[in-house]
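Hi V.,

You were right to ask for the full record rather than a summary. Here it is.
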Amino acid sequence: MKYLIVGLGNIGDEYDGTRHNIGFRVLDAFAKASNISFKDGRYGFTAETSIKGRQLVLLKPSTYMNLSGNAVRYWMQKEKIALENVLVVVDDLALPFGQLRLKGKGSDAGHNGLKHIAQILGTQAYNRLRFGIGNEFPRGGQVDFVLGYFSDEDLKTMDERVALACDIIKSWVLAGIEITMNQYNKK
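Predicted structure:
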């Protein structure tokens, strides 16, 4: 069985390490822990690994955030991956920094990457792991905030929160969404 794990972010050095690129950061950590590396491919950078006989395709789209659905659709079709075996890792302004929420469906909550994925796939019923980035920005400063860098305070617990996100991904692959939500959405 194949799974597609998509980390949302924007390509380019100017976006590296920004809040909006937390999906890339989580997938980079997952790849490092799995001793694999990404290669440049159509619509994104991919890496492949397996967990207990389940094949995982990790994808960091190169389409920029607002066109992420194109990459998701392409890799789903290329690898013949069912919608229920897709997980999108995304930044979330509504959650405090480091809080993680696994969901099987939901709104895009104003996130342009999720909005485009739903538009291209024709549904909002796809799995997503939301990684809280906080929302302490002045009124109207949302874009600058998400494209800004994490605070020193956030960075103190970043590795631990990213590692927990990787554990959630593994659990989702091995145990499914319901068990994983019950186990991890309390943390």
